[in-house]
Amino acid sequence: MTTRRAAAPAWLRPWWAQVLLIWALSRVITTTLISVLASVQGANAWTGANPRYTDFATMWDAHWYNIVAVVGYPTVLPLTDAGEIGESAWAFMPGYPVLARLLMEVSGQRWEPVAVFVSVAFSLGTALLFHRLMSRVLDASAARFAVVLFCVAPLSPMLQFGYAESMYLFFLTLALLLLLERRYALLFPVIAVMSLTRPSGLAFALALALHVGYRWFTRATDAFPPRQRMLAASVAVFSGVMGLAWPAAAWAVTGSLTAYTDTELAWRAPYIGYVELIPFTAWFQSGVWWLGLPLGILVVVALILAFTLCMFTPAVRRLGVDLRLWLASYALYLLAVFFPQSSTFRLLMPMFPLLGAAALPRSLWYRVGVVVLCILGQWGWLLLCWGVDGADWTPP
Questions:
Q1: In this predicted model, what pLDDT tens digit does every residue of 322-342 receive, in sequence order?
Q2: Exposed end of the chain (fewer CB within 10 Å): N or C?
Q3: Residue 153: left (phi > 0), alpha (psi -120 to 50), or beta?
């Protein structure tokens, strides 16, 4: 005798209702963890002891976004006592704080609640888009579980903090979905906003260029008509231009050609001092700083090899060519310009399509175990990188 599974209630049958429920339950869990940590948070540079949720959620770099929203960008780059370019708002792109400022003007609310509202709203939008994206490469069960992993991932608290990540992931997911659907013309406005929210234009331009090359070489089996070639190539060039737009804006306002890169380099100065930006050296510099020679170099090489092998595993190959091209392009971008430290976890968030590969196993024990580990990971990340303990050196 066989038993039939009870049918889901009518209100839960649409895919968007399922995603909404997953998102809502995950926010309850994450908000609870954040509230517990906020209740024991001591006084720090941004808040008093036991801060309110919105104050706790707008610490760290959210302060810089607040400065952009309220004051804007400096016309003169600040200098350290040693005469080097110091930290300033130019390291933070305008998309997120400008939107928050508009809502502040309309609602009359302060920065803190508005910043959190924007991030939470975009997190829901991203979850919905991510389901659509995964549904194009995975079956229904795996696509749904990929959304679960996205919503409970160790860094999912960032989706409701005063950072630009939630807004950026929304536009990145939309851009990847449009790429898979080959709706190239619609990518222009999406890339424009995305590139002014988080640094991404150059990485996405590389992914688009590789996409054009792949479609060209496979045109015998997958038609690539002239109009699509022109649009795809044009949007790749546009993405590259947008990747340079913010450094150009910093140059135009401050008069310094290297204003943006000098400002970004100021954040790694406490580790290795003030150095020039030499592509593909920062990971090795960081490896040596953290682990010394030769272990630091060997670990970086091992990470590069491990990621390369990961891209060719059966699970990752299930994601399709275009998503893998994005993953490879963004990884190459990080390898070229980023100095790894505690914010590395946050900088890896745009590689979230990999969650689709992790969602493939259908075992109930596996899925429950992964969710539990992710929630424990949230608590660990909050303790390590978000909560402030004295002279904290682990920024998120």
A1: 999 999 999 999 999 999 999
A2: N
A3: beta
How many residues does this entry show for the chain? 396
C-alpha R_g of the chain: 22
- Give 79's strand partners: 85
Taking Cα atoms as reference points, which of 191, 189, 195 lies closest to residue 245? 195
For residue 244, give both structure tokens: 């340079």
Cis amide prior to 199 (ω within 30 degrees): no
Report d(CA 350, CA 102) in Å as an integer.
26
In degrees and rounded to multiples of 5, residue 341 shows phi and psi of: -160, -155
Tokens of residue 205, six digits: 């331009």
Q: How far is 207 from 22, CA to CA, in rounded Å? A: 30
Amino acid at 224: F
pLDDT tens for residues 128-167?
999 999 999 999 999 999 999 999 999 999 999 999 999 9
CA 244-71-90 angle, to 5 degrees, is 25
Give the predicted TM-score (pTM) of the model: 0.96
112 φ, ψ (degrees, to nearest 5): -60, -55
Instruction: Report CA 61 to chain centroid distance, whole Å.
Output: 14
In sequence order, which residues have a C-beta less than 8 Å from that of residue 291 and are 6 or more positions away?
299
Per residue in 183-209, is it b (16+ CB within 10 Å) or e — as a string?
ebeebeebbbbbbbbbbbbbbbbbbbb
Query: Of 396, 316, 329, 381, whose CA–CA distance to 355 is shortest?
Result: 316
